[in-house]
Design goal:
The complex is a heterodimer of chains A (112) and B (117).
Chain A: E1 4-6, E2 10-14, E3 19-25, E4 32-38, E5 45-51, E6 56-58, E7 62-67, E8 72-77, E9 86-93, E10 101-102, E11 106-111
Parallel strand pairs in A: 2-11
Antiparallel strand pairs in A: 1-3, 3-8, 4-5, 4-9, 6-7, 7-8, 9-10, 9-11
Chain B: E1 4-7, E2 10-13, E3 19-25, E4 31-37, E5 43-51, E6 54-57, E7 64-66, E8 76-78, E9 87-94, E10 107-108, E11 112-116
Parallel strand pairs in B: 2-11
Antiparallel strand pairs in B: 1-3, 3-8, 4-5, 4-9, 5-6, 7-8, 9-10, 9-11
The chains are: A mainly beta (112), B mainly beta (117).
Chain lengths: 112, 117
């Protein structure tokens, strides 16, 4: 079946450094990709999305990169701040699909 | 403010009891979803509904039931048949675009934490 996996369950980054969170997916028909941030005790919050006709998309301090050849996407957070501490999920789906497949999440912690 | 409201925030279930978790959205979204999240894990789909009066089982539907009588509301009942109900339950909604490449992200509520007494 379809699967979405994250390369690291935890990531520790120095405050001010850049963070990179990775995600791999299995379904080559996937064409829509989303990153969510989940803080403790709250629901996932939408960060950024990208469609398969793009390789890169930038938001405020975040960049998502998509490599369809190896079925891999990453989330880059620039100048990581304490408020970025959370669990980050990637989610993958395809056109006309009624369901989204979520990865298991990477917990990002920030060292002062 | 547009969004998704889940209630209650915390819920306790006694042995043999059914409990119902509420989910309301004012985003005018057609689709609604229920997920279960266990500590340190991702989201597992329980049930989803793409239109009023219709819903489908997700990956872990056993021991749960839902209804979709109104577009805004998608309550989840955790029945006594669910032997391990302790978890964080998340409700989400999603609007549909038109045509290829029109997927939209799901929007989530802030969850209900269910525990056993």
């Amino acid at each position: 079946g379809e699967s979405v996996g994250l390369h690291l369950p935890t990531l520790s980054v120095q405050e001010g450094d850049n963070s990179i969170i990775n995600c791999a997916y299995s379904n080559s028909a996937s064409d829509y990709f989303i990153w969510y941030k989940q803080e403790s005790g709250k629901g996932p919050q939408f960060i950024i999305d990208i469609r398969s006709n793009m390789d890169k998309r930038q938001g405020q301090r975040v960049t998502v990169l998509l490599n369809k050849t190896v079925k891999h996407l990453s989330l880059q957070i620039a100048a990581t701040q304490p408020g970025d501490s959370a669990v980050y999920f990637c989610a993958v789906t395809y056109s006309s699909a009624s369901k989204i497949i979520f990865g298991s999440g990477t917990r990002l912690s920030i060292r002062p | 403010d547009g969004g998704i409201t889940q209630s209650p925030k915390y819920l306790f279930r006694k042995e043999g009891q059914n409990v119902t978790l509420s989910c309301e959205q004012n985003l005018n979204h057609d689709a609604m979803y229920w997920y279960r999240q266990d500590p340190g894990q991702g989201l597992r789909l329980i049930y989803y509904s793409q239109i009023v009066n219709d819903f489908q089982k997700g990956d872990i539907a056993e021991g749960y039931s839902v209804s979709r009588e109104k577009k805004e509301s998608f309550p989840l009942t955790v029945t006594s048949a669910q032997k391990n109900p302790t978890a964080f339950y998340l409700c989400a909604s999603m609007g549909y675009g038109r045509g290829p490449g029109s997927n939209q992200p799901q929007h989530f509520g802030d969850g209900t934490r269910l525990s056993i007494l």
